[in-house]
Input
Amino acid sequence: MDDDLPMTGTCDLSTVGRRTGSCRRVEIWYVIVDGRMVVTGTPGARDWLANLRENHEAVVHLRNPARDLAVMGEEVTDGSSRRRIVTEAWRLQPWYAEQGYSMDDWVQDSPMVVLTPPGYGHEGDTT
Output
């Protein structure tokens, strides 16, 4: 996605509220897996994911280097792709593995979205 982006870190993600149409901004962890920026979190439902399911357009507010980037969010639904992402996330960011969930819990129930700039190419093994 971006060669100067750290392999893991936090960013803010702005989505459009599915019910209100208002901008919703959350802080979230990301990891870079196979050159793709993936936002994820502990297993469970997330409003930001529900918003992205309704409207794929979002803005990532990066911190290092600081800038805003328009993106399209594509939920990762394929089991083998999800396992690959979780495995890399746990390797890159030990915080994930310390949260008390099993790898299978993460693969099954974690929110997981690949973020790409519009026109960057959305094909791949994410669905």
